[in-house]
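Figure 6 in text form: structure in, sequence out.
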């Protein structure tokens, strides 16, 4: 005779799931302190660029890639060619390809939860769970944190849209927030002497692109920079192997 499910076991599972969701929401609080203001900046930039207000939530739902969304606003407002947009987004977000190698995606339940977790694998989610102890990695906890993070981003964008729409006139110079964001990210990534050559290569790539192809400087600079980084990596590996043999 087939046994009926134990009501107590179902209750314990529901309690555990609820606790995991609450833990995920708690994990997202620190992340939200950074994501929500960026969402506000996105909404303000959308309105001040003369783009339709619904583009802010559309980007937050359809793209959900942080700094790339801010970059897309500027590119859309400037009617940037589609090829340049595609290459730029690929270059800025290519790091996400490697996140899956160490992100605990196997802890997320297969199906819709895992598909969403892959889609919402932003930097903050990766930093929160990539090195977390296995006992803390429940499927509901990870997905709840990612859902809350996206809610902060969408909500911030809507607040930014409302704020910018209520202003009597645009804030002059606010578009520099995007440039300032990338400057801060660059300085943060180049704190050690090891990364100084990469900064110099980036400057060389931009200078060469501005001289050789001023009309497509961004696209050319990204391609040249990627080639120079690949060359630097190959030379570093070759030098390392030579040292090992010695």
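Output sequence:
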């Amino acid at each position: 005779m087939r046994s009926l499910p134990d009501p107590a076991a179902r209750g314990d599972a529901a309690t555990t799931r609820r606790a995991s969701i609450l833990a995920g929401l708690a994990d997202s609080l620190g992340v939200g302190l950074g994501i929500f203001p960026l969402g506000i900046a996105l909404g303000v930039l959308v309105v001040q660029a003369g783009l339709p207000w619904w583009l802010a939530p559309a980007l937050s739902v359809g793209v959900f890639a942080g700094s790339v969304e801010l970059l897309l606003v500027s590119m859309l407002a400037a009617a940037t060619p589609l090829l340049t947009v595609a290459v730029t987004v690929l270059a800025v977000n290519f790091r996400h390809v490697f996140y899956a190698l160490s992100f605990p995606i196997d802890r997320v339940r297969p199906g819709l939860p895992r598909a969403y977790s892959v889609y919402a694998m932003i930097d903050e989610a990766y930093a929160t769970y990539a090195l977390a102890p296995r006992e803390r990695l429940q499927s509901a906890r990870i997905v709840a944190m990612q859902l809350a993070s996206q809610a902060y981003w969408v909500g911030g964008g809507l607040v930014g849209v409302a704020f910018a729409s209520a202003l009597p006139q645009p804030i002059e110079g606010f578009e520099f927030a995007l440039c300032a964001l990338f400057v801060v990210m660059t300085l943060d990534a180049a704190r050690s002497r090891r990364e100084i050559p990469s900064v110099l290569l980036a400057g060389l790539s931009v200078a060469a692109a501005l001289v050789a192809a001023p009309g497509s400087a961004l696209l050319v600079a990204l391609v040249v920079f990627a080639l120079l980084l690949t060359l630097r990596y190959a030379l570093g590996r070759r030098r390392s192997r030579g040292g090992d043999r010695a």
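Caption detail: Residues 237 and 243 are 10 Å apart (CA to CA).
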